[in-house]
Design a protein that fits this description.
- The chain has about 725 residues and is mainly β.
- Among the domains are: about 250 residues, Metallo-dependent phosphatases (Purple Acid Phosphatase, chain A, domain 2); about 100 residues, Immunoglobulins (Immunoglobulin-like), CATH 2.60.40.10.
- The chain has 8 helices and 56 strands.
- A hairpin with a 4-residue loop joins strand 43 and strand 44.
- Helix 6 packs parallel to helix 7.
- The longest helix has 11 residues.
- It is globular.
Amino acid sequence: MQFPRGFRSAIPAFFLLFLAVASLAAQGISDFTFIHASDVHAPEDVSVRVTGEIRDLGEIEMTPYGIKAKAPSFVVVSGDLTEFGGGDGAWDTYMSYWKDFPEPVYHQLGNHDAPQFVNRPFLRELYGACSWSFDKSGCHFIGLDDTIPHDPRACVTQEQLAWLKADLKKVKPTTPVFVVIHHPVNDAYFGSPYASSTFLDLLRPYNLVGVLMGHGHSANVQRHFGVDNIQGGAVSGPLPKCVAGFSVVDIRGGVLRVAYKAMGEPTTSKGVIEKPIPERSTYPRIEILSPRENGTFKEGRLTIKARVSESEKPIVRATWSVDRESFDEKGEQGENPLECKDGIWQAEAKCAEWVSGAHYIRVTFVDQKGTKFTKCVRLGTEPPPSRLIWRAFLGGSCRGSATVSGNTVYVGATDTKLYALDKATGKTRWSYPTGGDVCTKPLVVGDTVYFGSGDGKLYAVTTSGKLKWTFPAKAGIYSSPVFADGLVLFGSDDSNFYAVDAKSGKQAWVYEEPQYSIEVTPFVDAGVVYFGAWDMYVYALDVKTGALKWKFQGTGSATEAGAKRYYSPADCGPVASSGKVFVADRDSYLSIIDSAGTVAKSDRNCIAVGISEDRKAVYERKPGSGLEKIDLDGNQIWKADAEVDSVPAAPVEKDGVVYAVSRLGLVQAFKASDGAPLWEYRATPLLYVLSEVEVSDGAVYISGMDGSLTAIKAQ
């Protein structure tokens, strides 16, 4: 709530009385001040000056409100701590800004802290996890990491949601709660509104005062899904988008005031938000009675039933929607009416018209003032003949693909574990814990499973889950290992490419020339291993010796004028056949490289490549265009209309069928011979799938950021 300055100055006594009466939460909340900083982007030079101003800050005039704030008690930083992640000493540089700070500083990550170099291991070193919470003067503060290892999109991972649920159990409903996160809750970086609701629904019963966020390099407040998203500006600027600076947050007398202090100014000059802290949550209690969470429906219709209570204003209407993708809260497209009968709002849904698989339903209630309140539920539709074999849910999000070997399915998760599941039932047989995110596709050779972890170790465990050995890199391992000539080959965020003896775990050789992190799955062809790095280059090394055969600067990095590292050929592994290497880069260029390491051909609008089973053709993932099959000279064989996008997940061919999966979990199958569509299935309810599928023995396995591993029939 913001008031014109003239109104406040004309009747200050009434204004203060109104705030004091309206804010019953003032009881038990002592006055304090803290700093909300965001978007530091180390090693930006201006950030040194701005953090220095925070260090030296004492009492400060909050000019827009005519008050003097106390010296700050602590600092929260809401993401984008670094520009390209923490490599090349960037994390140490960032932390040096806060060294010997007089107040505690609490850090959270942003989308710049993950794609090129993953900062989550640093967060685990600081807090033991990627989430944190603390209490101050009667308020509860929660920090959630919404980054994804080696991806710019936003997701609150599954182990954090479990942590959040447990943390909130210790919080009273009247306690004011602040959440520190990087993206606003309606940001398309989350993929779908359901992704935001997965953590907002946990917070609804509590007294959520606001989300302290960054990302937009502005200082403002945005009201989304009933939550005040308070953006903290940018420590790094840059001009003219935003004057570098930080926000001062003052709580006194039960009133929240936030104002922005620009670099070099003696006082805060821009008011952001001023409102009483409520006594408790005013969000109504919404119960979805049908369908039940994770219910499965085999018939062509289902009944939606919901009820609402504890609403401050009368509810005048209600709607439901399925698989809504738009974050536009005002839009009504796709909304269907619910009718109220004896206090239950209900409708019939024709789910036979939906694609088989996972979905979500959102119910929306509208009160007399036009305010909307929502809640979501997940379900599955499996009309006969059902394609689903099983769906399992793990303790963390699945960033990497699964691997099938024998009667076991292996997959890693962000809760630091490798899981081994029964191939027939999806039941967990065992799990192996590490010290970081397990985001690599497991490699199985004989009786040994090899996988990397964000703790910087390559693990070798038996197929029964017993440790054989570990190999230490100097930073997190997010590059999926491959096997060739008795060696396990992989890259690391430490910029090195390693060859390790598969039996002993001893280093055979290491290639140290790359100048930044390596996340891709390497590709071996005819005694040569190929990989791209975030230093703009593709490398070709001799498998046995690690000797360089050639390196090639990616087309995007070579042609873009600035920030060339952004466009590296580094987030989808290359494929090779008959002396030709095919690689896509972040600038959506496909480069075809010949045996001499020079470009033979390049093309636009390709984000990922996969190889055909016979290695005589290549599949291109072309956002907005579809799936394309080309020969080894780059000539089109066929093109299919597929729901592919900017996720660099490779198409996969197996047994004459090629599979592609969209970022929101739609799996599509096509005939490899001519691209004719065969079937489609939704593996997640519009929640991220960021890796390629695994296909084995007539089944397709899809791992999702919702912690799901889904097995479906291939035919």
